[in-house]
Amino acid sequence: MHPPPTPSSGGAPRKRPVVRRKPEAAAPVPVDAAAQHDRPVSLGGLLEQISGYLSEADLQQIRGAYRFADAAHLGQYRASGEPYISHPVAVAEICADWKLDSQALMAALLHDTAEDQGITQGELVEHFGATVATLVDGLTKLDKIHFSSREENQAESFRKMLLAMARDIRVILVKLADRLHNMRTLDAMTVDKRRRIATETMEIYAPIAYRLGLNQVYRELQDLGFRHSHPMRYAVLGQALRVARGNRRDLVDRILAATTKSFSDAGIKVQLYGREKTLYSIYRKMQRKHRSFAHVQDIFGFRVIVPDVLDCYRALGVLHAQYKPMPGKFEDFIAIPKLNGYQSLHTTLIGPTGAPVEFQIRTETMHRVAESGVAAHWLYKTGTDAMAQATTSAWLQSLLDIQNENRDAAEFLETVKVDLAPDAVYVFTPKSRILALPRGATPVDFSYAVHTDLGNQTVAAKVNGELVPLRTELHSGDVVEIVTAQNSRPNPNWLGFVRTGRARSKIRHALKVSQQAESQELGRRLLARALTHQGLRLEDLDPGDWGRLLHWSGNRSQDELFADIGLGKRVADIVAARVRLLDTATDDASAVAPQRGALQLDGSEGTSVHYASCCRPIPGDAVLGYLGKGEGLTVHLQDCPQARRLFQKHPQSWIDLNWSSSVSGLYQAALVVVVNNGKGVLAKLAAAASEHDADILHVTMDDDSSSQPTIELRFLLAVRDRKHLADILRAVRVHKFVVRAYRAKSRA
Fold first, then answer.
1. For labelling, which of 164, 261, 562, 683 has a CA lying 20 to 30 Å from the CA of 276?
2. Between residues 61 and 375, which one has the greater pLDDT?
3. How far apart are the first and last CA of the chain?
């Protein structure tokens, strides 16, 4: 590993590496900042930080990386007017606070050389090795790729960074250091840019810091984001807090003195600190509880650090003996750690003036992990951060799983945002295993968190022994049991209420695989039918026939061609006609007129066949099939007005259908019942439907129905066929209060 032959910045002229500079790479220099241009940027502070834990060989490599970056950024300035190299040095200093290794520090120094100055991956590999080059690549935005929008560019960059992070956690640590320094120096930017960067920070980077357990970084990013996104609110709240700080100083001192004495009397060795809550956390509490600052009393808290876990619970007892605890305000994150490995006891007590006072109790080891999270691995290297490492590894692996099943960058970003939500609920399996899920999670999220197969086969759920709907929101302490069926599969409606990225990704993947298989089977049947009417048989096509047909269609395989036919991207009759032409060695597609034949529906087609909601066909109805491009086969009633309009526009996209004698499944039918208004009418109609084994999927009535002598009830039922529906209609019409009952061939 050899750095380029450039001297250090000690005053000698600096030779620059060969770069391909973009015209806009250097930031415009403010006139009043011109005096800062020649201000030297020292590496001394960084070297002093790292000399205590890195070798001399490591220091030499870091000096080389600094010289390379310094030369690459020569002539480039930040918006503040400072030499650009001051930024990567500051980022490296933040990384040095976490005691990251030499490769991470070199990546910090070099992280903008590729993005801003056109340094190639090959040059970085040549000078600093493959690992450093890979770290820099993970940090580099995709500026050279043209996207349809800035949002897509941002989503793709974020996806790339997260995947690089999943392979090497140092990528995100350097990125968080980069973002932290940018937020600290954001004042030089325009107002719009400050607000945009602040919003992005609070939506993405602060939650990532929290998810990795970097609570100090998390709090600072939130406060800086609040300051730049809502500067007036930040200033007003800051002034109010400064006044309150003076007014409540005596109270803090009183509590510190009293609790210190109590711990001393109990023989517990503690470190006791008073702490002030951040402006952003106070602001969020004001928003959540709809209170003014004057009514937010717990703006100060206390942290108690003790030698071991048993002392945590002893300290809790001392505090509860001194001040009365507030009911429902105790949380044990030692027994049940947070998603990011955080452990502490939290309790809120009634202080000496009647105001609530929060205490956090933890061991020294827990405190390290609480403040530094996954970075504690480099800070202490004692093995005591195993929990933070394990939870982080599991989360990073889940990112890779989601990416493998979802290649859309924007969708990936939205999925991961859900998983970054700081709030969590803690639920139990029937065997008392604890699972942490995002707030708002449902039994479906729970089942996928346990195992993919369990999620895919879910049909019902019990919470605390009671059957509940699958969309039920779970709460901490719930015991969740999943009921499965071997042949069941995910329901597309689940995507409307699941909360976790894992569940959303697994459901989409299962539906895609299922739809692909069903589309292939439908396409095979459609092509077989079309070939029959050309006097050919699908089974008789030999490899030569298939080769010529796939060459004509552009498909890579038979299954892909079948899927295209099943999804309506190709018309089976035209493909069959082409087979006949190929068979007769002619290239004129119009030489053979496609013939029509009926396809049988038996209820086993799955998601590749849709039943039109405009007319809701059921077995026994006269039907036609519409092959919309990419939509699969849609079944319409033959007398459906919507079908008539579509036929006039796309006559070639229609096929004849009939029902198999052994058709199975349930189908939606709309039923309208006009009744004399009276008590118990709806219940009696529901009972009539239930007695004939019909499920009521939905029921509606007019808003002003209570004041009308007659009302119109609209039911959406799940029925087997026309005979089943006729039986239900007869059962409904026998009631004397029924004025009229009929099937509506439109949405109920």
1. 261
2. 61
3. 72
192 is catalytic: no
Position 550 pLDDT exceeds 80: yes
Give every CB contact of residue 349 below 8 A, 6+ residues apart in sequence. 319, 320, 322, 323, 324, 325, 326, 356, 357, 358, 359
Greater confidence (386 vs 601) lies with 601
CATH architecture of the domain 31-231 equals: Orthogonal Bundle (1.10)
Select which of 70, 82, 116, 518 is catalytic. Answer: 116
CA–CA separation, 159 and 138 (whole Å): 10
3-state secondary structure of 300: strand
Q: Reply yes or no on whether 405 is catalytic.
A: no
Question: What residues does CATH 3.30.460.10 cover in the chain?
Answer: 239-384
What is the pTM assigned to this prediction? 0.54
CATH 1.10.3210.10 segments of the chain? 31-231
- DSSP string for residues in 345-358: EEEEEE-TTS-EEE
Give the tokens for residue 244.
């309150």
Neighbour-count burial of 705, counting CB atoms closer than 10 A to its CB (0-12 exposed, 13-18 middle, 19+ buried): middle
Across 205-209, 245-249, 357-361, which has the greatest mean pLDDT?
Answer: 357-361
- Distance CA(12)–CA(605), nearest Å, equals 77
Nearest residue to 365 (alpha-carbon basis) of 388, 346, 349: 388
Indicate if the alpha-carbon torsion angle 253, 255, 260, 261 is positive or negative: positive
Taking only the tens place, the pLDDT of each residue in 80-123 is 888 999 999 999 999 998 888 899 999 999 988 887 677 888 88
On the question of pLDDT at 60 being above 90, the answer is yes
Class of domain 667-744: alpha beta
- Distance, CA of 80 to CA of 36 (rounded, Å): 9
Domain 239-384 architecture: 2-Layer Sandwich (3.30)
Residue 361 has a pLDDT of: 94
Query: Which pair of structure tokens corresponds to residue 271?
Result: 């470190």
